[in-house]
Write a structure and sequence with these properties.
There is one protein chain. The chain is mainly α. It folds into two domains: 158 residues, Tetratricopeptide repeat domain (Serine Threonine Protein Phosphatase 5, Tetratricopeptide repeat, Alpha Horseshoe); 52 residues, no CATH class. It is built from 13 helices and no strands.
Length: 211
């Protein structure tokens, strides 16, 4: 019987919550387990319970924001991340996540601020560099995005998405031949049909564009 209880995180932490219903850390870990299981509504409930029991833990709000964003509520996610940062200003993950949320909302100026701060704290983070590159490109600063994409490809040449975005930034800075070669290679490495279709369409546009 005990093996069945511990078979997955949800079962384990649900049992723990039964015996310790007032433990914020138990509800927090149960929220993480539900997040891993992609049960975002229940994960949100558990994180809110953890926050009610202990409102001073930045990690709770950081992970609450992830499920709020997954549920389509980017405004709530941004608010939760700002609260996490107020509680723990050095939490790089929260700055990075807030930057990513703001990027998707089209709020490039603040996204850039958050991600630049995250990069200062953790310059080796691929996630931070990727999010900052996407934000810079989204804001039209492709020249600043290119070195970040190039550094990511230097570490992981098989990343077709990064290579595709690098190609688009090359195109935006007038480097057509480099753009075409990068998008061609990205397309050859891409195995997700929807992404490949987008790459194919952009490649056709690049080839037809005047030099």
């Amino acid at each position: 019987m005990q093996n069945r209880v511990w078979a997955n995180g949800v079962a384990l932490w649900s049992r723990a919550a039964f015996y310790a219903p007032l433990s914020w850390s138990v509800h927090y870990n149960l929220g993480l387990a539900y997040t891993q299981a992609k049960n975002y509504e229940t994960a949100k409930t558990e994180f809110l319970t953890a926050a009610r029991l202990n409102p001073e833990v930045a990690a709770i709000y950081n992970n609450l924001a992830l499920v709020e964003d997954a549920l389509g509520d980017s405004q709530a996610a941004a608010e939760s991340l700002r609260r996490a940062i107020r509680l723990e200003p050095d939490l790089t993950e929260a700055h990075n996540n807030l930057g990513a949320v703001l990027f998707r909302r089209g709020e490039y100026a603040e996204a850039r601020e958050q991600l630049t701060d995250a990069l200062r704290r953790d310059p080796a983070s691929p996630s931070v560099r990727y999010n900052l590159a996407r934000t810079l490109a989204g804001a039209g600063d492709h020249a600043a995005a290119i070195p970040l994409y190039e550094s990511l490809l230097g570490e992981n040449p098989a990343d077709s998405q990064v290579r595709f975005y690098l190609g688009l930034s090359y195109a935006a800075t007038g480097q057509k031949s480099l753009a075409v070669s990068q998008v061609e290679r990205a397309l050859s490495d891409e195995h997700v049909p929807e992404r490949a279709e987008e790459m194919r369409a952009r490649l056709s546009q690049l080839r037809d564009a005047p030099r």
